[in-house]
Each structure stands twice: as structure tokens, then as C-alpha cells.
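Whiteboard transcription, Tuesday session. T.W. wrote the C-alpha cells on the left side:
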């Protein structure tokens, strides 16, 4: 995985592109993994961990998106990706929301172990949406699985 992370950082650096993330269920694991790579400071502009809906909304996710589609949806992941890209003036924004096998007393909808990821490309105003079913036994294994999918998709699109 380290080689692939390094490759993403290298390509983004060469293209003078930047990246920001708004993570919920992954708790900052994605951005932390990127920052373990030399040169990450060239491309990572900002990251927010927004576990609760209130902070998703404070960071720019429209409340009506969460109300209409629920916090565990492609639409919310898209709104997160776009909001963080706009907030930080980044070329790419990544939004991540979902459940890693934990019951959420505040948000009872959504399937356990389903994670929604959206990668927003500001220059082209488009989204790459990912619906990931994690099968790890631990939260760390689930986060690693999500990271692997995101990194592979980034290598396809950049």
C-alpha cells in the first residue's frame, strides 16, 4: 500500500493538484495514511473528521441532503466531498460516510458495513462514487480496505 500512496502523492505533486478529505466513519485514517508519505504536504490542504451531522452541516453539507437521503448515502458523501473541496480550495475532495458495524443511535438507517465514498474533481465538476461493503473483522481492517479502494481509484483517475 505504501508504494501506491507514494505514487498518488507523486502524481498529484507533478500535476500541481491538491487534495482534502471530510471523513466520518474512517475517523481521519485516510488522510493520516497519506500524510505518512514524504511529500504529502505538497498536496494535502485540509482534512476534517465529522462524526456528527451537526459538523457535516457546519462544514458545508446541506442539511436537506442529510434529511432527504440520510447521513449514510451517496448523496451525503458527494456533498461532503464537494464541501471540503470548496472549503479548502482543493482540486480533489474526498467524502466518506457509512457504518463499520457499529449501531448509530442517532442515525438508525443504513446497512451495517456499508460505506459511501465520493471523490470530487473540481476542475471537471464531477464525482466518482464508490459503494464499499467492508468485510474486515476489526475497524482497522475495514479502514484499510476502504483506503485500498480509494487509492486504487485515485490511480485510475489522476
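and on the right, the sequence the group agreed on:
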Amino acid at each position: 500500500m505504501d508504494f501506491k500512496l507514494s505514487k498518488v502523492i507523486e502524481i498529484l505533486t507533478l500535476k500541481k493538484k491538491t487534495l482534502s478529505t471530510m471523513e466520518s466513519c474512517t475517523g481521519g485514517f485516510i488522510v493520516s495514511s497519506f500524510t505518512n508519505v514524504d511529500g504529502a504536504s505538497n498536496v494535502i490542504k485540509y482534512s476534517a473528521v465529522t462524526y456528527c451531522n451537526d459538523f457535516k452541516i457546519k462544514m458545508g453539507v446541506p442539511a436537506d441532503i442529510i434529511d432527504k437521503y440520510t447521513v449514510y448515502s451517496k448523496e451525503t458523501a458527494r456533498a461532503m466531498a464537494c464541501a471540503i473541496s470548496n472549503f479548502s480550495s482543493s482540486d480533489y475532495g474526498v467524502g466518506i460516510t457509512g457504518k463499520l458495524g457499529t449501531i448509530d443511535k442517532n442515525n438508525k438507517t443504513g446497512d451495517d458495513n456499508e460505506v459511501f465514498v465520493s471523490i470530487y474533481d473540481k476542475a471537471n465538476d464531477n464525482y466518482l462514487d464508490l459503494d464499499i461493503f467492508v468485510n474486515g473483522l476489526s475497524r482497522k481492517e475495514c479502514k484499510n480496505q476502504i483506503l485500498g479502494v480509494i487509492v486504487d481509484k485515485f490511480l485510475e483517475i489522476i
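Someone added at the bottom: The CA atoms of residues 24 and 97 lie 5 Å apart.
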